[in-house]
Sequence to fold (1104 residues):
Amino acid sequence: MSDGESLANTRKRVAVPKTYKLYVGGSFARSESGRVFPVTGSDGDFRANAAQASRKDLRDAVAAARKAFDGWAGASAHNRGQVMFRVAEMLEGTRDRFAGEVADVEGLPLPEAEAVVDTAVDRMFWYAGWTDKLGVLLGGVNQVAGPYTSHGGPEPVGVVGVVAPRSSSLLGLVSVLAPVMATGNCAVVLVGPEAAVPAVSLCEALATSDVPGGVVNVLTGEPTELAPRLASHSDVDALDPSGAEESLRGELEEAAAATVKRMLDVPLPEQDWSEPPTPKRLRAFTDLKTVWHPLGE
Amino acid sequence: MVDSPPSNPPKAGLPGDLAEATRDEAALTRFLRGLPGIDAVGLEQRAASLAGRAVKGDAKLRAIDTAIGMVDLTTLEGADNASKVRALAAKARRPDSRFPDVPRVAALCVYPDLVSDAVAALRGSGVGVASVATAFPSGRSTIRAKLAEVELAVESGADEVDMVIDRGAFLAGEYGRVFDEIEQVRAACAPAHLKVILETGELGGYDNVWRASWLALLAGADFIKTSTGKVSPAATLPVTHVLLRAVREWRDRTGQPRGVKPAGGIRTTKDAVRYLVAVLEVAGPEWLTPESFRFGASGLLNDLLMQRETQLDGHYSGPDQVAVDL
Amino acid sequence: MTEPKPRPLAYAPALESAALARLREHYRPFVDGEFTGGTGEPFSSVNPATAEPLAEVSGSDASDVDRAVSAAEEAFRQRWTPIGGTERAKYLFRIARLLQERARELAVLASLETGEPVRKTTEFDLPNAAAQFLHYAGWADKLDYAGFGPSPAPQGVVGQVLPSNLPLLLLAQRVAPALACGATVVVKPAERTPLTALVFGEICEQAGLPAGVVNVLPGGPGVGAKLLAHPGVRKAVFAGSTETGKRVRRDLAGRGKRLTSDLGGSGVNIVFADAAPEEAVRGVVEGAFFNQGRVRCAGSRLLVEESVAEEFVARLRARTESLRVGDPLDRNTDVGALGSAEVARLSELLERGVAEGATRWTSPAAPPHDGGFLPPTLLTDVQQSMSVARAEVFGPVLSVLTFRTPEEAVTKANNTPHGLAAGVWSEKGSRALWTARRLRTGVVWANAFHRFDPTAPFGGRGESGDGRVGGAAGLEAYLDV
Fold:
């Protein structure tokens, strides 16, 4: 014992380095391109290398999301809620680690970073509770004139492309991801270099908390390079451009026009992610389906 | 099935599946329960939509004459007697004395004990005599009593017998019993034509009307008829659509023509034209004859006559221009 | 009696008088409460049934667009939002009453300018248009409870570009919720059908609606593009084909403008073997041929279970034959006029279908004359890969395909970029609702088709657009939420 202690005091331990990978289809993998970019802390020092996603990785991620869609959308709302509550539990359980990463990446004092993580946990929790209440919020009975029953309910749009916020690495990401998951959609998220570390850690939490593979796919890299591809991909049904710079917005809108993608209306500059959420994103990523049936003897 | 002898031999002249349905009660029940459903709302919408067809001018005049020729002029009151029957017979022969070109009606419909009076009054006119029978209107009696009524009507000279089905048995699912009764009446009334009254207002929905129509056709009905006129609702357009569908499909599958008679509640020319439109669109133009379609009505004839006069003279008629039914 | 017997029942023409439409010789834009301007390209409104001009219309130009948008801006700030929901509600109610009062005139006018059967404009378009205003009148002072949070703010000036079918109803579906929300509108009706929209301007005048709240700019696609791109237009609404909708969206990209689109469809009816056959036939026929198939939710595809396909198609033909093709002003007409350009487009589509292996059958129902009419047409032997099975048909053409299992039916039905409307026919409740759940459309009619109600949201998914008309959902496009 005392030997060990003295060893630690005299020699600095060499940490086992981590490679930050892409999260696609439930697996962590390097970019098929073999490209990486250096991840630095807010102090500018090198921390690690992270995989830099390519167009091919983007295609794979969309395919993985599409493959997962029927299962996730078809799961019961209760079940989706349970999975998301589990994610909140996992985040809570690794609060300190996330706080350290957020503090490092965003250059926040630790107590502030802890508060951000707490908000992120609460946000996941808030959206988790919505899964089985969307019908009340967004649907209902239509009191039609005539011998029919008519009701409406929200259904997921499908695969949602997300350009993750750049101003808030963990809270921002949770704030855009949770509503996509809660509504039964699958996500392909582009995360910029500055947010890569907490993003990959979040993926690790997702991977160990019963979120089926492919429901969330996270590509680290340069969003300006991949976002237009995401916007023009015809198997992507909606786009959340939250983290896209103003200069990119027009290009994304134009690319999305070709397949009439849903485009979430988000403010510029980025919103303050600590603000309490509203159901806006739940509405945006669902399509209302109206079903009629006659009432006859 | 195998160890019990069939109650009825399969009917001659029917295609295999329909003949099979008449083999025994189990087969009949299977057939009737296996019939495709009818969606009430869709049916009523089609009926309402066709009711919007406009028939105007000369076309309307022809439609009125067509309808007059299809009327079964009916009196089914407790106070009926020989003088009432003679009065109606005169009107049946020549509905409007001012216009000799008005066609005669199809038949006069009375209770069995008045058939002989009707036959006497209509001899040589071409107007048929129809008689209700089988414990009209409820059908609640023994088969013996019902057959005795049929015999009375036929022996008195009725050309057509309007029987009622046993709705109680039908609703209890005793399709075999209803079938047997129709068959026995059918046998007893020959050579008179048999109209089978389903009393659709008591059957509880279009699916049952549809089943009862097939049951009656399988048992040998020449006509299927909606109502006695003593139960509300009586004839409606959607119910008549169901009967018309049944005879059309029967013809398509067997080649045999069968007729339809809506009865009760059809009072105006406008109503009658709507029924004719239904006949044309649902069954087909070949049904637009008294051999295949009848109106069971008492008040309708006078409205047809008044509208006819309006069409010809261009001014509105009044109720005292035509003879009252007394 | 040797002379041939007259037919026992026939339908004589029952013509509505064109005079009921009170056509004027000349129509102008409706801007800031007045019929003025129109210095753009003048054009004729043409009756598609006869190819004869109905009236001259002064087209709008850039200056008319500017005037209309600034009138709408001023009305928004000064005269419409400030008066509050309760007062706005009463204006909507007045408009509804006026639509009811002038229903016959408008129904005949709509029939004249669209070629749509007058019975349909009378029994469907007008009552529904009025019902939209009545429904949204009720929302105007209850927006806090519409599900968008407290005091949702209106969008400001809304530019609306509308298509040529059911022009008055489609206008009502969009103008009524906009006004209820406190937005003001500039409407650009289709070039082919400006007249009902301009008479609607007159109704706004009669209702005493403050000037500038509703403005109507007749003209071609260029006017629509100018309107939607105008910097004063905060919110753009486009209703029309998917192809044009994509172009509109590209043009507006990067302008910081919100857009709601109501685009085309390739609707489908799925008929299972256990369907109520007669009602399913009626639903499929109505689905495909209602309004000459010129509704974006038309059921232009039929998927029928293979085991009953032959019998069902025979019934379908028989029923289709009974549809009467003719003068739109005849109350007995079921299928009206399309105009020769549309007939040419559809003939090309049919030729392509036949070249690809489909079998064509056209109803023998005789149109009154050659130009401008296409009797209802079935294409059988259609495969999923053929262009007719994927097109926005928008005409009286029905493609018949078959399926073997429910899963296959759903897969084929969903195999289109569109996602607007579908019908499901089965007497088995669980199967009908299972299918309804799995269809990727905004509307599913189970054992019904073409049912509409102002309380029931209607709109598409995928390339059929993202808008909803009807109900609280119909307010969203006009609120800043």
Remarks:
- Chain B has a mean pLDDT of 94.
- The longest helix of chain B spans residues 237-254.
- Residues 40-318 of chain B form a domain with the TIM Barrel fold (CATH 3.20.20.70).
